[in-house]
Amino acid sequence: MKFLQVSEVCEFIRNLPGCTDYAEDFAIQEIDGQALMLLKENHLMSAMSMKLGPAVKICAKINSLRIDVTPPATAANSPEKK
Q: What's the pTM?
């Protein structure tokens, strides 16, 4: 997801229920995949003047994508037990 171009992010937003009207705002703000993954509700509501409902929907979808791309913990990257 973080390697999406601005146009691909706009298409992603356009396809979210109730968020079609905000797709162009993502292009204006030059939000690519990396920036999308960093967005928080307050960014959407303040910088993009988005209403709470669509901001929450977009952030929920972003959060679910973060969970999907987080690698599982392995013994190699887990904290050592003492």
A: 0.75
* Residue-wise pLDDT tens digits, 23-33: 999 999 999 99
Q: In the chain, what are the domain boundaries? A: 6-69
Contact, 27 vs 10, CB < 8 A? yes
The string of pLDDT tens digits covering residues 31-44 is: 999 999 999 999 99
Q: Which CATH architecture has domain 6-69?
A: Orthogonal Bundle (1.10)
Amino acid 80 reads E
Q: Amino acid identity, residue 28?
A: I
Identify the DSSP state of 22. G
